[in-house]
Design goal:
Layout: H1 4-18, H2 25-35, H3 42-53, H4 62-83, E1 87-88, E2 91-92, H5 94-97, H6 100-116, H7 123-152, H8 158-183, H9 188-215, H10 218-221, H11 227-230, H12 236-244, H13 247-256, H14 264-278, H15 280-300, H16 306-320
Antiparallel strand pairs: 1-2
Helix pairs in contact: 1-3, 2-6, 3-4, 3-8, 3-16, 4-6, 4-7, 4-8, 7-8, 8-9, 9-15, 12-13, 12-15, 15-16
């Protein structure tokens, strides 16, 4: 009964009750729009399933789960502006559908709403949830800044890149599972254990996204394929391709990411070829598998309801199966 789809449906029902356009509509319509675009609801599902896994009532975690999803979508609205991304989940991004100023302000009010959703919790729980949320929100912003810094930085190491995605993406999945543990009334040791499971899943998830940005099916991926290459983003694929490349391949890659002025389709096609030729594409897939296995090992060692643990394992496996 308590599989991932069950928790997705429960969460979406809860979201539908809250996802209505307030006034002024010019501020709140974009919020309702981005929240209605769907997705797998990874972060709220992880929070709800963790609470249930640890013996708590997942209904009590709904507001925290929605807080996480509102914050996540706030970050997407602003990321799309910074990345000049035309699509989000296969639909027009907010700044494309409305305009830049509307997207900025609607994103801002989503951040405020994310905090307000935590106000329903009693004092002792609130005092644990808010510092975790605040730390995570700050780290996500730090990760986004590193990501932007890398665009103009000549050299980016694998270690620097992995730290960036830890901050930008992985800590939010870790926080989702830690929030589930907090609402499940567990102590700091179990909370940290749950955070580490989510962190490893987050690392795998972002590395997988990097791969899919280059090699995914646009209709399934929901974003413009090749967008990272087009905007010269230094992803794991690019950084590792430079590390593994021959002198000539390295020279060609750097040319495409700095001086190339030709057709963008030509650039994307050749860079993807170089990612495969150097072995960076295969290495990226191996990294996804490594972080996923680390998450599963931690999950297997966590005491909790066996059926929910198996369903959580299956949910994570489905997420990571997108490039298998």
């Amino acid at each position: 009964m308590y599989n991932a789809r069950y928790f997705q449906d429960e969460f979406n029902d809860f979201l539908e009750l809250h996802n209505h356009s307030d006034t002024p509509h010019t501020l709140y319509d974009p919020v309702a729009y981005i929240m209605s675009l769907g997705g797998k609801r990874v972060r709220p599902v992880l929070a709800l399933m963790t609470t249930r896994l640890l013996g708590g009532d997942h209904q009590e975690a709904m507001s925290a789960a929605l807080s996480l999803e509102v914050f996540h979508n706030f970050s997407l609205v602003h990321d799309d502006i910074m990345d000049r991304a035309p699509l989000r989940r296969g639909k027009s991004s907010v700044h494309e559908k409305w305009d830049l100023n509307t997207a900025i302000l609607s994103g801002d009010v989503m951040l405020i709403a994310a905090y307000q959703l935590l106000e329903v919790y009693e004092a002792s729980m609130f005092k644990q949830l808010v510092p975790l949320f605040t730390r995570t929100a700050r780290e996500v912003c730090e990760g986004q800044q590193y990501d932007m810094d890398f665009e103009t930085q000549d050299e980016v190491s694998v270690a620097e890149y992995l730290n960036m995605i830890r901050l930008k993406t992985a800590v939010l999945l870790g926080a989702a599972m830690q929030m589930g543990a907090i609402i499940g009334k567990k102590g700091e040791e179990i909370q940290k254990h749950c955070f580490d499971i989510g962190l490893n899943l987050g690392m795998a998830f972002q590395l997988q996204d990097d791969y899919l940005d280059a090699f995914g099916d646009q209709d399934k991926f929901g974003k413009q394929v090749g967008g990272d290459i087009a905007t010269n983003k230094k992803t794991y694929l690019y950084i590792q391709a430079l590390n593994l490349a021959t002198t000539e391949q390295r020279k060609e890659l750097r040319h495409f990411y700095s001086e190339f002025k030709g057709p963008i389709d030509e650039k994307i096609a050749r860079v993807k070829q170089l990612f495969k030729e150097t072995g960076a594409a295969a290495d990226n897939i191996e990294q996804v598998k490594t972080y996923t296995m680390q998450a599963f090992e931690l999950l297997n060692s966590l005491e909790g309801e066996t059926d929910i643990k198996n369903k959580l394992h299956g949910f994570a496996q489905d997420l990571m199966g997108r490039i298998s």
